[in-house]
From TrEMBL:
Belongs to the methyltransferase superfamily. RlmG family. This is Ribosomal RNA large subunit methyltransferase G. Its EC number is 2.1.1.174. It comes from Pseudomonas silesiensis. It is an enzyme of class 2 (transferase). One of its GO terms (cellular component) is cytoplasm. GO terms for molecular function: 23S rRNA (guanine(1835)-N(2))-methyltransferase activity; nucleic acid binding.
Length: 374
């Protein structure tokens, strides 16, 4: 893999989660452009630089030791990548303070480097939270590959930060530079809320939650076919999002014990709040993590999963396949993984390579619900 070479550092970087013969690198031309632009401004060692949505630590690891850098984002895997890449390049794993997107930031910041996220609601929430946290004369510099840079990103910077100008394109990347000015404090439109009829619950959704405005059609297809009569089963909602699968299952299975896991801190925050609203003080484990990577082997009876088919801008089944492997490892013999997936993704044949029995529980014209038994 090529090294990231900028005026700040020369780094050997890896993506998360790691895979053999990784076809993609852990940085791109937008990372290089952001760092080159910042270097031209010659920030002092005391400059406070906030990095938002650093994919795998390329920005923060480059700046560590050169400025006072803080990293914030909504991805557990991104923070894991930052820690591993710091170690990989001879630095302490905790050399850069990391603040999950679900937690408040403490300024003032002289510069903010932003990787424009796929979900513009996350960008909007982050920019709103920057109000009152920027030093006089601060700039917010957002970068992306041009094909992933919507016009709305510039509109959000102008609305919440100040006047924006766009850079020239370099290696198919572009920067949007916003000069901070005094603004009337904005009220965040997040979290959003929507209600379900069955089960009759209201779901709260922080800014980066998948399908913030309403239930996604895959989950809608899954809900009527969640397993019942689970008794005191140990159940995990893998990639829990706002927690709807676990909550609906828990309402049907009052004795079961639940673990909700997602790599998005805002998803975990939403799931925890939704659980407590629907189920009060009923015990639950809700955590951000790399799927079931930290789960004890053979410690679960049931896993529920609506697997993702992309990581950031990259579409593929690598994450789903990895989740299936994690579920198999965590399940007891005889335990079952229940999933919903688009018909065309061919999950049945993938699951058959890992589990002793795979059956179709139900189907719609677009989705299948499958049960895979270990």
């Amino acid at each position: 893999m090529p090294l990231l070479e900028t005026p700040f550092a020369r780094l050997d970087l890896i993506r998360q989660p790691e895979q053999q013969n990784e076809p993609l690198q852990a940085f791109d031309a937008a990372d290089e452009y952001l760092l080159t632009f910042l270097a031209e401004q010659q920030p002092g060692a005391d400059s406070r630089v906030l990095v938002l949505n650093d994919s795998f630590g390329a920005l923060a690891a480059s700046l560590q030791g050169k400025v006072r850098v803080i990293s914030s984002g909504d991805s557990f895997l991104a923070f894991q990548g930052l820690e591993k890449n710091l170690i990989r390049n001879g630095q302490a794993f905790d050399a850069v303070p990391s603040v999950p997107a679900s937690e408040a930031l403490t300024g003032p910041f002289d510069r903010v480097l932003v990787r424009v996220p796929k979900t513009l609601a996350l960008l909007e929430e982050q920019l709103i939270r920057l109000q009152g946290q920027l030093a006089p004369g601060a700039q917010v510099i957002a970068g992306a590959m041009i094909k992933h840079l919507p016009r709305a990103a510039g509109d959000l910077l102008e609305r919440y930060i100040g006047p924006v100008h766009a850079s020239l394109a370099v290696k198919k990347a572009r920067l949007l530079i916003a000069d901070a000015e005094a603004k009337v404090p904005a009220v965040s439109p997040y979290p959003t809320r929507y209600r379900l009829d069955e089960p009759a619950i209201e779901l709260l959704n922080h800014a980066n939650v998948f399908c913030r405005e309403g239930l996604d059609i895959g989950t809608r297809a899954f809900l009527p076919h969640l397993p019942g009569n689970l008794g005191a089963a140990r159940v995990a909602d893998l990639g829990c999002g706002n927690g709807v699968l676990a909550i609906a299952s828990a309402l049907q299975n009052p004795q079961a014990l639940y673990t909700l896991v997602d790599e998005s801190y805002m998803a975990v925050q939403s799931a925890a709040e939704n659980w407590h609203k629907a189920l009060g003080d009923r015990p639950v484990t809700v955590r951000a993590g790399d799927g079931l990577a930290g789960q004890e082997p053979q410690s679960l009876d049931v896993v529920l999963c609506n697997p993702p088919f992309h990581q950031q801008q990259v579409v593929g089944d690598f994450l789903a396949w990895r989740m299936f492997q994690q579920a198999r490892e965590a399940l007891v013999v005889g335990g079952a993984l229940y999933i919903v997936g688009n018909r065309h993704l061919g999950y049945h044949s993938k699951l058959a390579r890992l589990f002793r029995g795979v059956e179709q529980v139900a189907a719609t014209p677009k989705f299948v619900i499958l049960k895979a038994r270990k």
